[in-house]
Amino acid sequence: MESTETLQDLKEQCRALEIIVMPRDTRKILQNKIKIKNMKEETKKGNITPEQIEAWKKEHGKVYELTVKVSDNDVAIGYLRKPKRDHKATALSMYKQDKILECGEFLRDNCWLGGDQRLKTVEDIADSAAIQASGIVKFLEAELGEV
After folding, report:
1. In sequence order, what DSSP letters do the residues of 102-117 get, joined into one string?
2. Is residue 59 a contact partner of residue 74, using CB atoms and an 8 Å limit?
3. Sign of dihedral through CA atoms 76, 37, 54, 101?
4. So which domain of life are we looking at (predicted)?
5. pLDDT at 119
6. Which DSSP symbol is given to 4?
7. What separation, in Å, do the N-terminal and C-terminal C-alpha atoms of the chain show?
8. pLDDT in tens, 85-134
9. For residues 6 and 76, what is the distance between their CA atoms, to the nearest angstrom?
10. Domain-by-domain residue ranges, the chain?
11. Is the pLDDT reported for residue 1 higher than 50?
């Protein structure tokens, strides 16, 4: 179904949302800018749509879902991207020092894309999330031997 909003209507919506409007922006471009801005705002509130997850996959490759069961009827869900090399290095350094919780917190916080903020702020939930987040660093089986 085609939107009936005029180009001028869309420009006004963009300005109200503090979105930069370029002179050559078409209706389709402005609609997309508004959609992206709205997705980002919803993400900040913890409301993640399948569309947002697909956008993250395009941008970051792999996306991980982090789930903590808070109670029988309450689950906290957040999303992480694959860690970059420098994140892996720092996390492994912490892990080697037996700082498992700190390692997970570092990965959770630095790879965070969005979701339920309790995963980062409510102690028991955040601790459980951090322990799970430490599993995001994966290594392939390898061997080293002298020849």
Report:
1. HHHHHHHHHSEEEE-T
2. no
3. negative
4. Bacteria
5. 94
6. -
7. 67
8. 999 999 989 988 989 899 999 999 999 999 888 999 999 999 999 999 98
9. 40
10. 7-44, 55-136
11. no
What CATH number belongs to 55-136? 3.30.2220.10
Is 47 or 118 the better-scoring residue by pLDDT?
Answer: 118
Beta bridge partners, 74, equal: 71
Cβ atoms < 10 Å from Cβ of 144: 4
Query: Can you tell me the distance from the alpha carbon of 64 to that of 30, in angstroms, rounded to the nearest whole number?
Result: 30
Sort strands 74-81 and 63-71 into parallel, antiparallel or unpaired: antiparallel
| The dihedral formed by the CA atoms of 22, 25, 31 and 36, expressed in degrees to the nearest 10 | -50
Q: How far apart are CA 108 and CA 134, in angstroms?
A: 8
Query: Which bin fits 66, alpha (ψ -120 to 50), beta or left (φ > 0)?
Result: beta
The chain-wide mean pLDDT, for the chain, equals 88
Q: Are 134 and 104 spatial neighbours (Cβ–Cβ below 8 Å)?
A: yes
